[in-house]
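Supplementary Methods. Inverse-folding protocol.

Structures were first reduced to a discrete structure-token string of length 384. This string, shown here, constituted the complete conditioning input.
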């Protein structure tokens, strides 16, 4: 019992460290009071000057063909590790228990960083009629287990073939940030590189299951990562539905730190480069107004033929303002933007805990199958 409580305290402590670093979770209350995305974008654009120093160290889309994506694999074989300058992706090993809150899941993942959430990665699973395999993409500083130890077993129980892996692991010396020293910390590497890792994994899932398309569920960075894959890595032809939870789809203000940092960067002082020390490459790429975010959203939020379900929580302290996660439908796409608390004010889930919300799980199942009901149940922040 003491060990479990200690790990829970460690989980909360690490999340608090993340808040100080600028991309983590603190109890800041509803994010709706934050400045609008347009206001922050205008702030960023004011007084832009050509840098007089070396270009900022914000990671750019990978042009090195050796690092662009992971080499093709056997259907269930391990990922190939690229050279030391790129992030790595890895398959899960072993299966952890089902969890009902993030604190316990985080504690378990500290000791078992490569564990799969229960119900995931049965490469012998064949989708039922009318279903597609579901690929789960974790968020920044998370992993396949601690992000989905609640969602994965629920989807499996509902009859879905579920699959997940760990992507974007980058060590501290190559830009992964201080947080990368914690076991089980992934999603810190260059997001376009991680999208290549998603492409490899989806291809394996399709080959194993015989399906022509998958559905994707992404939390936090998992939202824009999936959209990067759809837009630039051929994913639009292989995905039918994308469901995001607190996705940093239009970037995050990092509670204003991002806006300030980008403004200073535009004056030629590489403050965001220094910020990568605690935050990591992917954290900087998710700042509102970053080159990554601008390129991702250029030409519109959506792609034809994809059904999008986008969920925000009013208490999101990472994707700020929380409405910035919402997408606008373009030609040939459908978008359903949902606020978790609409019709269920007793759900107080924040950014970290929303993947452990009973209501969130039911929204995912309803998005996959409209006949599945959406429920309301109490849920709290972080350790609900």
């Amino acid at each position: 019992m003491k060990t479990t409580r200690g790990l829970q305290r460690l989980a909360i402590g690490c999340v608090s460290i993340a808040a100080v670093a600028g991309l983590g979770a603190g109890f800041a209350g509803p994010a709706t009071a934050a400045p609008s995305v347009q206001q922050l974008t205008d702030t960023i654009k004011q007084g832009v000057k050509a840098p007089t120093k070396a270009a900022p160290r914000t990671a750019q889309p990978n042009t090195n063909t050796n690092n662009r994506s992971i080499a093709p694999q056997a259907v269930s074989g391990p990922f190939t590790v690229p050279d030391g300058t790129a992030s790595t992706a890895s398959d899960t090993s072993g299966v952890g228990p089902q969890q009902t809150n993030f604190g316990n899941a985080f504690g378990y993942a500290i000791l078992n960083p490569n564990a799969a959430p229960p119900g995931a990665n049965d490469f012998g699973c064949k989708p039922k009629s009318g279903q597609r395999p579901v690929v789960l993409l974790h968020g920044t500083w998370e992993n396949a287990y601690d992000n989905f130890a609640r969602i994965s077993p629920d989807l499996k129980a509902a009859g879905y073939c579920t699959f997940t892996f760990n992507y974007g692991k980058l060590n501290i010396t190559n830009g992964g940030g201080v947080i990368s020293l914690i076991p089980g910390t992934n999603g810190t590497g260059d997001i376009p590189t991680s999208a290549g890792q998603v492409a490899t994994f989806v291809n394996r899932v399709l080959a194993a299951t015989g399906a022509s398309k998958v559905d994707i569920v992404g939390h936090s960075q998992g939202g824009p990562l999936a959209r990067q894959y759809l837009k630039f890595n051929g994913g639009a032809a292989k995905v039918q539905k994308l469901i995001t939870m607190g996705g940093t789809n239009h970037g995050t203000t990092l509670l204003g730190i991002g806006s300030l940092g980008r403004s200073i960067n535009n004056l030629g002082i590489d403050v965001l480069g220094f910020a990568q020390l605690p935050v990591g490459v992917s954290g900087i790429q998710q700042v509102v107004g970053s080159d990554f975010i601008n390129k991702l959203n250029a030409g519109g939020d959506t792609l034809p033929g994809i059904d999008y379900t986008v969920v925000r929580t009013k208490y999101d302290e990472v994707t700020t303002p929380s409405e910035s996660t919402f997408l606008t439908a373009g030609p040939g796409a459908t978008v359903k933007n949902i606020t978790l608390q609409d019709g269920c004010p007793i759900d107080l889930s924040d950014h970290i805990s929303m993947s452990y919300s009973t209501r969130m799980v039911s929204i995912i199942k309803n998005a996959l199958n409209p006949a599945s009901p959406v429920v309301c149940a109490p849920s709290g922040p972080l350790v609900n």
